[in-house]
Structures are given as C-alpha cells and as structure tokens.
Specification:
mainly alpha; 11 helices; elongated
C-alpha cells in the first residue's frame, strides 16, 4: 500500500514539475545519439531521433495523467448527478435513467470511444471529455444503490420531520455517506482512463506528437522493437505500475476498516 501511494505521488509530482525542467530536453533532437541503449548520460536510452527517453517519459506523464484525471472528474460528476437523481426521484425518472445506463453499457466502451474520437479528431481535452462521458455508468449505479439504501435510514426521516428538503438532505446527509464507493470508483476509473488513453495514443488517434504521452511513446517503440527494446519496455512499465498502484489503493480503501464513518446526521 505504501509503495503504491508513493508511486502515485511520484507520478503526480512528475506531471507537475517535469514540463518545467525537462520540456526542452524531451524535444531535443540529436541524430548522432539515436537508439542508444540505457546507460550513463541516457539512463533509459534514446529514441530514433536521439531524444532522451527518460525526459520524454517524465514529460509525457503530464498528458497521460492529465487526460486520466480530467476524464475521471467528468465521469464522477456525471455519474453522481445521474445516480443521485435516479435514487431520489424514483418512478419514471428512475426507469428512464436506468434505461440510459443500460443503453450505454450495450456498447463496448473502448470501441465507442475509438469511434467518437475518430469522428471528432484528437485533442487532450476532447479525448478526456469523451472518455468521461462514456465511463460514468459504474459511478451512477453505485450512487443510486447507496442513495436507495441511505434514504430509508432514521436520520433521513428525522431530517424530513424537521422540514429539510430533499436537496438539503442529499447534500448534507446522503452524498457524504455515499462518498466511500464514489472514491473507490474514481480511483478505479483513473486506472481505466490511463489504459484507454494509452490505447488511443498507441493507435495514433490519442495524444498527438510532438506532445509525448505514454501511449504514443509505446507507438514510437513499436517500429523499433527488434533493435530498441527499451523504447517499448519503459513506457509499458510506467502504464503498468501506475495502473497497478491505483488498483492497490482502490482495493485498500474499499475495505470496511478503511471507509470513513457515516457523515453528518
């Protein structure tokens, strides 16, 4: 758990700091140093244009993590709004929103994202929003289930007797108590978004060069796999370790002892 948290903190720091100190280094072309293996001077080797792979990996953290965080925020906000509305409204509104969730789940998420990005074109913000608008269904289901359970509790009935409206009850009592599953879903969504961004960039319709990301660094290494293994190994390890760390953290905070006690009543 500590190792996973430390890795995620390091990734966040790299996303913030690396472009400031290594942005120029990551784009510096030196054809005489092309495809150098890992060693002194270039600790993770160089690519086909002689650019330092370590610098490009660290700078690429900004694009990869930025897309993942923004898409997770979009998915969480949309999921919470739709799930809370379905849980509170009931009746036809709930059935309509559940139908929307089921309809969204009918389509394979990655291929739906792939089709929309191919039609609308790549772009960091655009890709993040599209991933978020496709990935909100799990959060919506979790929030709806929590709302349905919590609104039958005694403290909600007491708030109603005291004259509190449903908006205040939802804001003060229900959503804070439903925050545990939402946090777990957001962390898992972050790791899923990293994989989707990496897949899109690997296919050439995600983050576009010269902006580096873990996915398009993988794509660059594909053509040199037989002679420059490091160009594929290290971006792949970055994605693998970050996704693994996010999943470990999500699993840990989903344990009953790690979930915060119920909120204000």
């Amino acid at each position: 758990m500590r190792g996973a948290v430390a890795w995620l903190i390091g990734v966040v720091l790299a996303a913030i700091v690396a472009p400031l100190g290594l942005g120029e280094v990551a784009q510096r072309i030196d054809l005489q140093a092309a495809l150098l293996p890992p060693g002194p001077g270039h600790w993770l080797g160089t690519d086909g244009l002689g650019r330092d792979l370590l610098a490009r990996l660290l700078v690429g953290t900004t694009a990869s993590l930025g897309v993942a965080v923004l898409s997770t925020a979009v998915a969480t906000i949309v999921g919470v709004l739709i799930g809370a509305t379905a849980g509170l409204a009931g009746g036809r509104v709930e059935r309509a929103l559940l139908g929307l969730i089921d309809l969204t789940l009918c389509f394979p998420a990655f291929f739906l994202i792939l089709a929309v990005v191919a039609m609308l074109g790549p772009g960091l913000t655009q890709i993040a929003v599209i991933i978020g608008l496709v990935g909100w269904t799990q959060t919506a289901r979790l929030v709806r289930a929590e709302i349905l359970s919590l609104k039958e509790r005694d403290f909600v009935a007491a708030a109603r007797v005291l004259g509190a409206g449903w908006w205040r009850i939802c804001r003060v009592h229900l959503l804070p108590n439903a925050s545990g599953p939402v946090i777990v879903s957001a962390v898992l969504g972050l790791s899923s978004a990293l994989l989707v961004e990496g897949g899109l960039s690997f296919l050439g319709i995600g983050v576009q060069p010269p902006v580096p990301s873990w996915g398009n660094l993988l794509m660059d290494g594909r053509s040199c796999l037989g002679v420059a293994w490091w160009m594929t190994l290290f971006p792949g390890l970055m994605i693998f370790l970050t996704v693994l760390s996010a999943n470990v953290v999500a699993e840990r905070i989903s344990e009953p002892s790690s979930i915060a006690p119920e909120g204000r009543r």
